Amino acid sequence: MLPRIAYLNQLTAATARSPVTALLGPRQCGKTTLAREFAATRKSTMFDLESEPDVRRLANPELVLGGLDGLVVLDEMQRMPQLFAVLRVLVDRPNRNVRFLILGSASPDLVRGASESLAGRVEFIELTGFDLSETGDDAWRKLWFRGGLPRSYLAASSEDSATWRDGFIRTFLERDIPQLGITVPAPAMRRFWTMLAHWHGQTWNASELGRAMSLSDKTVRRYLDLLTGTYMIRQLQPWFENLAKRQVKAPKVYLRDLGLLHALLGLGDAAALLAHPCVGASWEGFVIEQVMRAMRPNEGWFWSAHSGGELDLLIIHKGRRIGFEVKFSEAPKIAKTTRNVASALALDHLFVVCPTPTAYPVDDRITVLPITEASNLRERIDSL
Prior knowledge:
Distance between the termini: 35 Å
Strand order of the largest sheet: 6-8-7-9-10-11-12-14-13
Number of domains: 2
Structural class: alpha/beta
Helix content: 40-55%
Mean pLDDT: 92
Largest sheet: 9 strands, mixed
C-alpha cells in the first residue's frame, strides 16, 4: 500500500474536532487499511461488523462501547445502523475521553443514519482510490489506465490488474449492491453501467438511455443516482451564466475510476485505449478527477452552450473563478472560442491540461499545464 499521508492528516484533524468521524468511499479503496494504520498510532479498539465474533461482542452495544476510551473504530457500519442511536447517547455524555471512527461504503442508510442521528457530532471524510499525489506524478500513465483502486493499481501485471477489475465489477453488482439495500437485478445494472461507460463524458440524456434499455426516464435516473451514491459515477452539474445564449442544463456523467471504465469497455491494455474512440473522453475524466482531488472544492461545474463554446471544468477557489480545458495533445492549440469562453465567464485564470512535458503561459490568464503538475495545482493557483 502506498503512503496516504494527506488522509492520515485529515483523520487526525477530524478526530480532534469531532466526537465521530465517518470515513466513506467505494468498496476496495483502502478504508480499512487506512483506519488500521491510523489506529496503530494511538490507543484504540477496532470492531469489524462483518466478523461474527465482533458482532456478538456488541450484543449490548451501549454497555460495551460505553466502557471504552481512546479511539473506537467501527468498520462496515452500514451492517448495524442501530448503532447510530447508541453513539449519539455515548458522545453526549459529559467528560468522555473517546472518539469514534466509523467506516462504510456509501449507502443511503449509512449517510442518512449518520446525518440524522449524529447531526452536529459527525465529520465526513471521503476516501477515494490513489491519485497523483500518492503515486507520483510520473506514474500518470499507469494510474490513468489501471485506475486508482489499490489492488488494481498495485497488481503485479496489467493482466492481473484487468482480471481484478473484472472480478470487482462482478462482485460489486452481485453482492455489494444488494448488501447496500439496492434492489436492482445485477444484469440490468451491468447493462446500464456498461452503457454509461460508452456515455462517459457526455451530457446526460435519460430519454435516450431509457429507450435503449426499454426503461422509463425515472428508472434510469434512479440507477444513475444509485451509482453516484456508491462513488462509481460523478455527475458534473452545469454552470449558468447570464449570457444571451441557450445553455446546456443537463449534467455530464463520468465514471470516477478510469480503470473500471476501461474494463467495462473491454480495453485490455494501454495500446487498445489509445486506439479507441473514447480515448479523449477517458483522458478528460482522468484529468477532472485529478483536479478535483488536488483542489478539493465544494463543487465543480462545466459550462456549455448549444450554439458552441464550452468549458470542461469550473471551480471557485478562494473567491476566484478557475477554469480547466482538457486536451489530449502534447501541443494544444488555444482556439478563439476558448478565449471567448474565458472572457464570457469572467475567469480569473484558465488552465489547459494536457500530456505536455512542461508548463508554459499563453498569456496573463491562460496557462498550458502538464498532467504531471496536477498534484501541485493548489500551490500554483495560490501563487498567481
